[in-house]
Amino acid sequence: MEAVSETDVQFWMAKAVNWGEATSCSALLDTSRHLGSLRSFLQQVLQGLQQMMNMWPFSHFINAILSCGLVYVCSERSQRLLLRCLNCLYSAEPLNAVEQKANMWIKNMLCHLISEEEGSVAHATVKHAGLTPKRYHSEALQKVVSLMTEEVIKSCDGLPNTSARCSNGNIHAMSTACAALVTCPQMSPLIGALLKHSMLCGSSCLNQEFIKEVSEALISKRLVLEDEAVVNLWCYSPTCLEGAAVSLLESVLSDHETMTQSLDKHVNGSLLPQASADHCHIFISVNEIYRNVLTEIDENLAMRALIQVFTVCFLQRLTGQKPQDRLPLRAFFPHVMPSLLTPLLTAPSEVPREAWLDHLSWIRSLLQSVTENEEVGEDVRAYQAFFEAWFLLVQCGYWVDTAAELLVLAAPENAEPLLWLLTFFHHPTNRGHQRSQQTAVAREAWTHLRMLFLTRPPPPRHLSAVKELLSSSLSANLVLHLFSNFTVFSHGPVSIITEITDKVLTEAAVKHRALWILASIRCRLNSAATWDDSVHSRLRTLQDTLLQT
């Protein structure tokens, strides 16, 4: 392509000035006649800017074109050429006063592009092209973002190695410029491209303020990005991943609607299960966050429900991957005894119903062998193995729910392993022989509940006994877990079940905890191999009853 001559620059400078000052039909006709030639000239200018060290001979021409508003009379291709010329004039790392002055001029020009003041481009475009300032601002930002997005994408292509990609200081400059604009809807493509670049680059080339603003905007739902961009953000910044995990936790603990609606849909909507299945380190990080919270509030049923549902959603996403792309379970649970992974991480829907009791007995025997070595405070490794086993049971709480369901109609000779699992789930430590005491409480509660729900009419003394057991601060959640499963899976009339529920669950706090247990049951039933309409109907009725009262 020929070099740009000074005569050409002077010719187009004069044209830009004339077009900017004239409003007649002949001037507009002259503009339309020359747009094709202008586009060819702009292509030459762009090539000159990309090749020359001293680029300022073109700056006054670009200034005239942009200032007169011609940028929005031009075709889209010409507009993009103008913006690329402006981008070429910017120095990511100015080395002297001239380059600093150049950068200041470019920033002022961008401000001029979006200003509503008289004499600005917005004012000129209203005069020449009939665009409103609002429409102009939106289109101006879209075109600038489109140009910058292309530049980011191109910076990832055709480079020999990762270090070459990382040397592009423009990426850091672009992310710095975007920090204050992340909530503008038009910015999403550029933000996504920058985050993708960070993954390909593998180094910290993005402005930290930009990362912080993007994370906060996502959590507050003031920014919408494609899933890939969100996951790239979490891979780039552990702080942003932690913020997303905590945000999900806070939303579950504070939003009562998640108790009665589909908790699994709420968790999947966070994108964390999918990201965890695709990136092992994300799953381990989220697990660690929830594990630390659980140790502080281990009796919180909402926290346990979230951990259980998150694990279920994660396993579903992992199972959906192609076998050749799927990491082994051991990679996601590196500290758990391998013998525990298969029996606990196998969903109840994957085991025939008639084999549930044997499967639960198998789980119980494995966990019991771990607890036999538990002497808290004496052997750190034994305690760690014990804690990991218990936490895996919390993650796979669907098997505890399955045990509670079987207890509704279980024969006395089959109840022992099921009661042991339920007790270990709620009372893992055995200080002062606490577990054996709580197993006795569980057995007593189960006996009263069988008489209460399977006898007609319900005997009053058993109803009083269940209420008394629920009032115990130590065993309340264990008894409530059993009681909730009896309300859902016993075969009595719904009217009698709701009547018993109203008489037993009289305190608001107890009803609130019962709703979380019902939410866990509902999630397990949603992923069951078969669908029982009567059970789901009963569950919805119970949830509505507890909410209304």
Automatic annotation (TrEMBL):
GO terms for cellular component: Fanconi anaemia nuclear complex. This is Fanconi anemia group C protein-like. It comes from Sinocyclocheilus rhinocerous. One of its GO terms (biological process) is interstrand cross-link repair.
